[in-house]
């Protein structure tokens, strides 16, 4: 499966999660553009949203070197149609829909 930079950015900012599998385990990458402050989760670290391009670059470079494999995964926990919907529901104090 090909992972282009623009596709990664589009899908991550729309609320999808990318699983990155390394030789020693795996981690997920996702963006939370509607969080306060907006963030990117990468290798278990919470980064400022402005680091999204650098995160994408790091993932693509690791893929190109054959160090990792990636796949899109279903997010765990609360399921909403998008990040903005989840953010607005949480801000309004509405109960989340759990699976």
Give the biggest sheet.
5 strands, antiparallel
Strand order of the largest sheet: 4-3-2-1-5
Q: What would you report as the Rg, rounded to the nearest angstrom? A: 14 Å
Structural class: alpha+beta
Mean pLDDT rating? 82
Shape: elongated
User: What's the SSE pattern?
Assistant: HEEEEHEH
Per DSSP E runs of 2 or more residues, the count of β-strands stands at 5
Count the DSSP helices. 3
Distance between the termini: 28 Å
Report the uncertain regions: 95-99
Strand content: 25-35%
Count of domain modules: 1
Helix content: 25-40%
Structure description:
This protein is elongated. The chain has one domain (5-92). It has 99 residues and is α+β, with helices and mostly antiparallel strands. Helices cover 32% and strands 27% of the residues. It has helices at 5-13, 52-64, 83-92; strands at residues 17-22, 25-32, 39-42, 45-48, 69-73.
Chain-wise SSE layout:
Blueprint: H1 5-13, E1 17-22, E2 25-32, E3 39-42, E4 45-48, H2 52-64, E5 69-73, H3 83-92
Antiparallel strand pairs: 1-2, 1-5, 2-3, 3-4
Features:
99 residues, alpha+beta, five-stranded antiparallel β-sheet, 3 helices, 27% strand
Brief account:
The chain is an alpha+beta fold and 99 residues long. 32% of the residues lie in helices and 27% in strands.
